[in-house]
Design a protein that fits this description.
Elements lengths: L14 E5 L4 H12 L3 E6 L2 H13 L6 E4 L7 H15 L4 E4 L15 H27 L4 E6 L12 H21 L5 E7 L6 H6 L15 H8 L10 E3 H7 L1
Parallel strand pairs: 1-2, 1-4, 2-3, 4-5, 5-6, 6-7
The chain binds NADPH dihydro-nicotinamide-adenine-dinucleotide phosphate.
NADPH dihydro-nicotinamide-adenine-dinucleotide phosphate binds next to helix 1 and helix 6.
Length: about 250
Amino acid sequence: MSENIGNASLLTNRVILVTGAGDGIGRAVAMAFARAGARVILVGRTQSKLEQVYDSIMAEHLVEPVIHPMDLASAVADDYEVLGKSVTEQFGRLDGLLHNAGQLGTFGPLQYTLPENWMKIMQVNVNAAFLLTRALLPALLASADARVLFTSSSVGRKGRAYWGAYAVSKFAVEGMMQVLADELENTSNIKVNSVNPGATRTVMRADAYPAENPATLPTAESLVPAYVFLMSSQAADIHGQAINIRELLEKL
Ligand code: NDP
């Protein structure tokens, strides 16, 4: 699709917020965005992990990132508004928003899923993405060429027994992507899509498949060219799509 994906300047001057930036796919992608020239706003619940990502970015003499610790399970609408206002005040715009943070929750039949566990997964995986998008839309609309990426999963595209709230939350994420993409079609410069990273060597995957050998799985780092491409001006004609990261990587 492009010969410039490795180009270190693909995201120069872009301001991009990544949730769940302290670990797993979010950490690898946040590093890649910084290496491609972006100023990255690192959102996550464990401050020490965000600080490690900050230190890694600074150690490579990249654009200084911003840390914004936030527990999406307990944050309320006002917390998102504060973040949205602070992004507008500091940068005047937001060029990219990657909803990556997610929680797996418990497995089992819906009949035996505890209501409080269901609510928590919906809060982190769905409600937080809505509240964050809502609070950041003014900053995204101020960008000349913005991107919003929601993170889905295979079980958010085809239901599977015992995947419970996690699977249902990912279906909701796909729905949010479609509604927002349709709302913004032809009325803004914001492109909205969802991504399914596919099986990836992270803590979440190990929790879901404890018997699996992680060494057999692709690393989070191997996915980053697809995320950089989707956040760049090269993806300006991709909108409203449910993207498989692996398939996209083969085309890049
Ligand atoms: P990890 O569990 O490795 O990382 C998730 C990140 O999200 C962590 O940084 C975590 O913070 C953060 N996070 C979790 N809960 C909260 C919260 N309440 N508030 C703020 N931050 C939070 O997951 P992956 O990297 O594997 O997954 C990333 C995304 O990709 C998820 O949306 C997942 O559903 C999706 N996905 C992953 C697949 C895989 O095989 N890995 C396959 C398909 C989809 P902390 O480190 O502090 O806990």
